[in-house]
């Protein structure tokens, strides 16, 4: 069965035109504060409510409107950033010539030329380098925050595939593990001319890293991608709870403000009744 690979374009947006309003409102009402004030607004619409509904509905509507506008603006900025990344160009080998294409059109099996200080457009296998001994220097600050350069080394079997004429002769198959979120482990094999060569993290160049102190390297794109872009969404779920904690405080404070005076008045009324002198009944 033929293997189908995903495209190389990325999308970090949370909404589209059709899902913005329902999904945006759902996200807003995941916050306890908004749920609480929605309940208060519903109660103010009942016939027994002493206040007009507009005094509660209007502030809640304004808060939701401002929050949705903020969400739309942030999602638009994410969309623009995605478009900027997807339209970045990289050179691939076609008919023994280097042809620039946007990152989003990069496909598994393309032989890519990465120049100095450029970012890797995908998770790719290191073939050859202009440095001696087939090494290159990689900066991974975008992934793990470390600014010190890391050394990567190509397999000696592929060092000769450096010029376009030689690189166009390369034929191989990459057999690797399923996609995962590990930055420091990798297992796989490179099959070249019926020869199986083991691969290690030294031959893996991850998307988001950049090439340093090396004129250029050649790599074929391979099919391993990481879900690093999902981390901010998961993080937002945890930080959202912390941001909503004032909602809990507001709820309990309002309940205390209602219950405490009522209880104090009830206690005072009972004490007053006990201290009141009794009047003897007339016979």
TrEMBL record:
GO terms for molecular function: ATP binding; ATP hydrolysis activity. Keywords: Transport. Signal peptide: none annotated. Residues 86-149 form the P-type ATPase A domain. Pfam families: E1-E2_ATPase (PF00122), PhoLip_ATPase_N (PF16209). Residues 4-56 form the P-type ATPase N-terminal domain. The keyword Phosphoprotein does not apply. It is found in: Endomembrane system. GO terms for cellular component: endomembrane system; membrane. Gene3D superfamilies: Calcium-transporting ATPase, cytoplasmic transduction domain A. Its main location: membrane. NCBIfam families: ATPase_P-type. This is Uncharacterized protein. It comes from Brassica campestris. The lineage of its organism: Eukaryota, Viridiplantae, Streptophyta, Embryophyta, Tracheophyta.
